[in-house]
Amino acid sequence: MNRYQDEQPEKPGFENNIQQGYKEHSPGGDQGHYLHRQLLPGQGAPPPKKPPKAKRKLFWPVFLAVLITASLTFVLTAAVGYVFFADAIRGLVNGPGSSPGGAAPGDRTLTFTDGEGLEEALEKFSTVYNLLQANYYQEFNDAEMIGKMTEGLINEMGSPYTFYLTPEYNQAVEDSMKGEYYGIGAVVMKDHDGNFVISDIIPDSPAESVDLFVGDIFVKVDGKDALEFEDVGELAAAVRGDEGTLVKLVIYRPLENRELSLTIKRAKVANAAVRFYFLDTGIGYIHLTEFSDHAAEHFENALVALMLKGAEHFVIDLRNNGGGYAQECINMLDVVLPPVTVATVKGREEGQVYEDEWKTKTASLTPDDTRYVILLNRYSASASELFAGALRDHGKAVIVGENSFGKGVGTMTWKLPDNSAVQITGFEYFLPKGESIDQVGLKPDYEIKLPDEVETKAPNRRTLEEDDQLQKALELLQPEVRRKK
What we know:
This protein is α+β, with helices and mostly antiparallel strands. The protein is built from 11 helices and 19 strands. The strands form 5 sheets. A 6-stranded mixed β-sheet has the order 10-11-12-15-16-19, with helices on both faces. Strands 1, 13, 14, 17 and 18 form a 5-stranded antiparallel β-sheet that branches.
């Protein structure tokens, strides 16, 4: 078995797009059916005495007594029923199999625990729902209203990485992580200002042929304002389409302070996630564009190929790499590290708080004295930061470039029956020395910013002479090569 096929941590991975199936819950157990045992004559009680003959003049007093007793019984029964079935009375039923941790996906129930302000919040919700349903200028049926409530709830959770994916959006994300799709070949990320920025250009793609730049910002896609897209995947789904069809883009180019209108023909794009070559005597170069399917396998193959050619130390270029699957990241670390802890994860799952450790499991393929220089910039995020931070914390690497993006939380993707999905921020990860980089990023050991005219080029289109960050990496590793000799 190859190391990239090894068993991974049981907890959901970083941006791991875990597809969780729906659990079916069968009705079972008493649903509040209370049976009152009655004692019949001869069963634990003395036989009743024969009642005396009633007198006519006692009719009204007896009638009133019975009426009062029946009324009190009804009130008490209703009160007891509300205590035990308040949720049902409000139309909110705790379904069989549910727990305080929350219902499993697919349950048609809502579970509330009593808390301060719950009744008032439900009353306010009911009022607003009815007002919208009755007075909004467009009419929506209940199913449509519930759909809007679902998306609104997801988008208001407070994390920019928790959001709803339409079926088309979800399919686009899945296709992109497979490394092959029909589109223009521009890798896009959302920056801290909410702009959709091109972070990389795939070689030999339509985006390269029309001279799109790294740093270009989307303004419109086929006439739709880019700010209307919820997230990168939704915009990507709009840009992609059938082979040979056209997409009209308006982009803003900060370097030239102007907007450009472009019409681009879509084509098949194969994203080469790993590119590598021999940089100098004893030094190999590996450029990873994303942590997509099989990234660890390609990384290991590149490393071995370079070592066979005599590479002893490596430059790993993660500039413009927005992340990907945690599993691929950990498997890559398994190639270059001995069995160690690479991250501590703290989060919630099925209503319970958990803490876990992600560890490498096999011996490193490289010698213990192998050193790495990792190149990062402001577009390097999530799995890129985990890889670089773990390798540096274990004393194997230094970082050159710019402060990274700062995404230190992980997400899970739950696929829904209609092929839409919800992505949920489920945990935060901490580097081996205990550092969280969320909203902070990794500070480089050698901070070097490229000139604007160089930074707008994709890394594969820069020459060594103009790439000051790569030159610094080479400068740092050359003494290591000489030392071995």
